[in-house]
Design a protein that fits this description.
Layout: E1 8-15, H1 21-27, H2 31-39, E2 47-55, E3 58-65, H3 70-82, H4 84-92, E4 95-96, H5 98-109, H6 121-134, H7 140-159, H8 169-180, E5 191-194, H9 198-209, E6 215-218, H10 222-231, E7 235-236, H11 242-247, E8 251-254, H12 265-272, E9 280-283, E10 298-300, H13 301-368, H14 372-397
Parallel strand pairs: 5-6, 5-8, 6-7, 8-9, 9-10
Antiparallel strand pairs: 1-3, 1-4, 2-3
Helix pairs in contact: 3-4, 5-7, 5-13, 6-7, 7-13, 8-9, 8-13, 13-14
């Protein structure tokens, strides 16, 4: 098959739709592994450009290829270092042309993430492109694609509710804390996190990132509480001091795995009345960590999930709007592809103009004895003025090569190198 002018975009990879977590963990590429893969990119016949996007939800390779066999050769090369599991997984997830373009744009907008509207993926895409560019693995096609994917992601977050609110557990708890926490005068009262497991850590990370605090931890595992305190710049309290710590806190968040409540109703009432205003209690335990019959208002895991469900419902309602933005961006992608031959002609025209101008300036300088800088400015202004009008007319005319005006599809590879 003859090489194509822009090359054809191909995607091979595995994501949450095709692989379970354990398999995605085996396929994930660290920055070091990605660097090694990109270093080998130019050795795969028929692959011109390559971008590796590896996150918790996916490991995907975006390629610009010359022929149908290039994606499979790429997978074979990756499998030499990643094993047969990689070969089987990546071969299942091949997309070409528009399918690959649309997929990356949807990924950038958070439509293909486990968490709908994930705010982190656009930054992960930028980091992936930066690494690929530093390795010399990307060219004009992937540069344009990454630019448009990032652009549509920004538009989606700015003009729709795809990124509305706090939808992770830690983020939802942080939003509730900010909603209920009463600003303290003088020395601020701490936020007490009871527990040191995965949920406590997730909540702690979001609270610390949001600047809430000061933060304090207590746990039946003293080492666990100290580790969180060290990681998030707070303090650890002894488990024996739970009642006192709760009574002095502005917010008490419990995230303990326990069959029975960790405090009796009487202990909870004493802690709640130890200071004014009373602490805000958020119980993330299932079964509950705090007694429900203490006469104290307690926000439960259901309250947190209700907030998340509301947020996710609004995000889900925004999906059609985001898909319309992706459709618009895909049209812009086709227009960019169609204009590439014309832009290459214009680029060649300006390169030739520069060469001829240099020759003309040298000749005039020798013949007239005028200052070279003055001659250069005069010639440049005159010639560029003539060129500008013709170039503008060319761009307005929409002069296109018919083959390039066709969308890229699974069955159509367009012609020559770009």
């Amino acid at each position: 098959m003859k090489p194509s002018t822009p090359g054809t975009l191909a995607l091979v990879g595995a994501d949450i739709g095709s692989c379970a977590l354990a398999e995605r963990e085996r396929l994930a590429c660290s920055p070091e592994a990605t660097a090694a893969i990109l270093a080998r990119a130019r050795t795969v016949r028929g692959v011109r450009e390559a971008l590796v996007l590896s996150t918790c939800n996916r490991t995907e390779f975006y390629l610009v290829v010359d022929d149908r066999g290039a994606p499979e050769r790429w997978v074979d090369r990756v499998a030499e270092h990643r094993g047969e599991d990689a070969r089987r997984a990546f071969r299942k997830g091949t997309r070409l042309g528009d399918e690959a373009v649309r997929h990356l744009m949807r990924v950038a907008c958070g439509l293909e993430s486990r968490l709908l509207g994930d705010a982190h993926i656009a930054g992960q895409l930028r980091a992936a492109f930066t690494q690929a560019a530093a390795a010399g693995a990307v060219g004009p096609v992937l540069t344009q694609l990454a630019r448009q994917a990032t652009q549509v992601a920004r538009r989606a977050r700015r003009t729709t509710r795809i990124g509305y609110g706090a939808s992770s557990l830690g983020a939802a708890v942080t939003a509730l804390v900010r909603q209920h926490q009463v600003p303290a005068s003088g020395c601020p009262r701490p936020i007490l996190i009871v527990g040191a497991g995965a949920v406590a850590r997730d909540v702690s990370a979001h609270l610390a990132k949001a600047g809430c605090g000061p933060l304090q931890w207590t746990s039946r595992s003293a080492d666990g509480a100290r580790r969180l305190a060290d990681e998030f710049a707070g303090e650890a309290a002894a488990w024996a001091d739970l009642d006192s710590a709760a009574g002095h806190a502005a917010v008490v968040i419990t995230a303990v795995s326990a069959v029975e409540p960790i405090m009796s109703a009487e202990r909870l009432r004493r802690a709640a009345s130890a200071s004014h205003p009373r602490p805000v209690f958020i119980d993330l335990g299932v079964p509950r960590n705090l007694p429900s019959d203490a006469g104290t208002e307690i926000l439960t895991i259901d309250d947190v999930h209700a907030r998340r469900d509301h947020v996710l419902a609004l995000r889900q309602a925004a999906v059609p709007e985001v898909e319309s933005l992706v459709d618009e961006e895909l049209l812009a992608w086709h227009q960019w592809l169609a204009q590439r031959p014309l832009e290459q002609v214009i680029k060649a025209l300006f390169l030739e103009e520069r060469q001829r101008r240099t020759e003309l300036v040298t000749s005039l300088e020798e013949q007239t004895g005028l200052d070279r800088t003055a001659v250069e400015q005069l010639v440049r202004k005159t010639v560029r003025g003539l060129l500008h009008g013709h170039v503008s007319a060319l761009r307005r005319s929409g002069v296109l090569l018919p083959a390039m005006a066709m969308p890229m599809t699974r069955g159509a590879f367009q012609g020559g190198r770009g």
